[in-house]
Amino acid sequence: MSKVFDSSKPIFMQVRELIEDQIVNDQLKEGDQAPSTNQLVSFYKINHATVSKGINQLVEEGILFKRRGIGMFVAEGAKETLMGQRKEAFVDNYVKSLMQEANKLGITQSEVIELIKNTKGSEF
């Protein structure tokens, strides 16, 4: 198995995220052909069913669509959809817990904003 994958989450999710990242980073644009299941199986040396599960989830969510006999393609609005999902996940995974901890420490919202602005590497 490739070094790209780790044991912290299922491989099919990592395959899915790999394709999502390519869309979000503009490596794959709307209408572009996505890597085929066979290409992914061959390149990463992973099980066909595992790859198919990740890709099929993207098809079910309208991120990819199938053209019979040709392959998988990036759907119109895929990047926008993924960006929206990731923003929601960012809020759920980071912002909510940040604000909960700030509240425990008596740090106001405006103080949090200032802390973020003054954090090295922040471009806020």
From TrEMBL:
SUPFAM superfamilies: Winged helix' DNA-binding domain. The keyword Methyltransferase does not apply. The keyword Zinc-finger does not apply. InterPro entries: Tscrpt_reg_HTH_GntR, WH-like_DNA-bd_sf, WH_DNA-bd_sf. Keywords: DNA-binding, Transcription, Transcription regulation. One of its GO terms (molecular function) is DNA binding. SMART domains: HTH_GNTR. It comes from the Bacteria. Residues 9-77 form the HTH gntR-type domain. Pfam families: GntR (PF00392). PANTHER family: GNTR-FAMILY TRANSCRIPTIONAL REGULATOR, HTH-TYPE TRANSCRIPTIONAL REPRESSOR YTRA. This is DNA-binding transcriptional regulator YhcF (GntR family). It comes from Planomicrobium stackebrandtii. The lineage of its organism: Bacteria, Bacillati, Bacillota, Bacilli, Bacillales.
